Amino acid sequence: MPSVKIVTDSACDIDPHNLEELGVRVVPLTVRFGEESYLDNYELRGKAFYDKLRTSEVLPRTSSPSVGDFCKAFDELTADGSGVVAILLSEVLSGTYQAAQMAASMLPGRKIAVINSKTASVGYGLIVLEARDLAEQGAGFEEVRDAAQSMVDRLVTMYAVDTLDYLYKNGRIGRAKHLWGSMLNLKCILVLDDEGYVSGIDRVRGKSRVIPRLIELAGERVPFGSKIKLGMCHADVAGQGAELVAAAKDKWHVIRTVETEIGAVIGAHNGPGTLALILLPVE
Would you tell me the crossing angle of helices 96-105 and 67-78 to the nearest 10 degrees? Predict the structure, then answer.
């Protein structure tokens, strides 16, 4: 059994049951539609979530795991002397990271590293899998921790939203931008910056221009032909996701690919049709 155990949260959007089979502990976030409450990616995920989102009269709300949730996980996993590396949703997008930090402080003397991924969805899901592989190969606590942090610092995450409706409803853009962008059929291309904040970098008109522009913008950050590990996630647009992966593989030397569907927590804020490209350059 590895001496280092990996923890993450459900918003990494890799099927939590698959992660559990790999020995990764998943602490779930929660999504609520009015009085209805669901554990993200355990009780609501994929098409079922997007169908509900499209027809719901109320905007879903999300909430982080509690300090107690993380404290329980950390205590159980470190009780045998193992170290824990927790790789979590961007600190500026959720209270998840802060809750985990507080939980770790309540277990003095335990080897617990809490990593702010500064990204979302399979952006840090990819890092989770890489860290798990290192631990499985026998890497020590400091090696896994430092490798995870290095991956955070190298990762490039960008995505496009199909509609501005959810950005508007969640207070990310104003009414004027929402109306103007919707009339012009604009697709916003966004990036998660070095601190994990969402920043707009471009707008294209029409869905057909989204994938070429994502590839072009990513190539400005990671030169074409570079050796990379690739992440792709989508919100109920599997066909576009496959097209994006094929386009990326035509431009970079891809040695690992992780594809998934954006779950309820991230999907609630960006809406159906979102398409994301994640590049992890290989050192």
Answer: 50
Evaluate whether 149 touches 115 at the Cβ level (below 8 Å): yes
Distances (CA, A) of 17 to 28, 41, 277: 12, 9, 24
Both tokens of 276, joined, read: 């994301």
- pTM recorded for the entire structure: 0.93
The CA-atom distances, in angstroms, between 220 and each of 10, 92, 182, 184, 189 are: 31, 25, 28, 26, 14
Which tens digits make up the pLDDT trace of 85-122? 999 999 999 999 999 999 999 999 999 999 999 999 99
Whether 182 is covered by a domain: the verdict is yes
Tokens coding 80: 């045998």
| 104, two tokens | 């770790």
Phi, psi angle pair for 29, to nearest 5°: -85, 175
Say whether both 205 and 248 belong to one domain: yes
Around Cβ 225, how many Cβ atoms within 10 Å?
10
